[in-house]
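Hi all, posting the design record for the shared folder.

TITLE: backbone redesign
STEP: 1 of 1
STRUCTURE INPUT:
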């Protein structure tokens, strides 16, 4: 029986989308449509994992009136959450969608600063005994160190809980050194290890650094996974047009679910599901959703090569 998937979003947001007939800089606009829901990469991971039938627990910080709205939306979406209160106000992201062409103009607020006491409270509330895996993703709020996710990974290991960390740059290397399963895209990998490194070589290098496994998304070239047992590349079934913003989060959800079921999953099988889920996410207009029928259709068709 798979354990509970805990998803960590340290910089939660309320995503607000306004629809207007036509966006004119400097003009006054009548809003034709308003949508809002809890956002952040970890929340997207939780939504996808829940859609795929897994039990999830969304973890993060919330503050102020906006934080209350985030908590309410998670409840309304059927996602169980354990949220740590902070003094600052939870951030908003605002997207204005132009009705003429469908293009979105996005405004991202900075996240609230998290104090040492609030960070300690987050750790103290962690329900380690209930967790099968901890999946951490998204930006870090002001006040937290670059190795915050790595710190969580070290604490998780003390409780025999594996961690999946989606990060780039210094945070990716720190997560690998902490023994996490790391997940990144090709650009984030090269930000961490250098522009000249190949995806295959980079994934293997992260494992040598200490990662339990590394899963790297490589755009139209699919995905690469590496562990101490080997390395593999999975190729997409077909080119998919749509919104790619939630594809990486769908991949993280599949990886976390696999690790929750087994600390040493068959990474070739995991890649098949991850590629299919990522492509199915592109078909949906909102990050955190996937086209379940497309996922089920594509998953058996994904080709995996040993490297």
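Okay, here is what came back for every position:
SEQUENCE:
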């Amino acid at each position: 029986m798979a354990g509970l998937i805990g998803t960590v979003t340290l910089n939660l947001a309320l995503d607000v989308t306004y629809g207007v007939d036509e966006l004119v800089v400097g003009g006054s606009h009548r809003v034709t449509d308003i949508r809002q829901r809890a956002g952040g990469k970890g929340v997207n991971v939780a939504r996808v994992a829940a859609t795929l039938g897994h039990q999830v627990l969304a973890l993060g910080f919330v503050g102020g009136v906006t934080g209350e709205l985030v908590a309410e939306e998670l409840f309304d979406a059927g996602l169980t959450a354990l949220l740590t209160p902070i003094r600052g106000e939870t951030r908003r992201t605002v997207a204005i969608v132009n009705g003429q062409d469908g293009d979105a103009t996005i405004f991202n607020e900075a996240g609230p600063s998290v104090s040492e006491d609030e960070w300690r409270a987050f750790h103290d509330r962690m329900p380690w005994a209930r967790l099968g895996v901890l999946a951490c993703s998204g930006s870090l709020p002001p006040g937290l160190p670059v190795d915050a996710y790595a710190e969580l990974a070290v604490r998780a290991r003390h409780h025999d809980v594996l961690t999946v960390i989606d990060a780039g740059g210094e945070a990716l290397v720190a997560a690998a050194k902490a023994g996490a399963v790391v997940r990144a895209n090709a650009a984030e990998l090269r930000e961490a290890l250098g522009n000249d490194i190949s995806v295959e070589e980079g994934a293997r290098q992260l494992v040598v650094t200490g990662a339990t496994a590394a899963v790297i998304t490589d755009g139209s070239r699919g995905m690469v996974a590496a562990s101490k047992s080997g390395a593999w590349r999975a190729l997409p079934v077909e080119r998919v047009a749509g919104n790619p913003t939630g594809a990486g989060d769908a991949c993280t959800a599949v990886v976390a679910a696999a690790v929750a079921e087994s600390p040493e999953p068959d990474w070739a099988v995991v890649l098949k599901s991850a590629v299919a889920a990522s492509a199915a996410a592109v078909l949906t207009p909102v990050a955190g959703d996937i086209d379940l029928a497309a996922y089920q259709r594509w998953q058996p068709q994904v080709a995996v090569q040993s490297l």
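COMMENT: The two ends are 31 Å apart (CA to CA).
Let me know if anyone wants the other runs.
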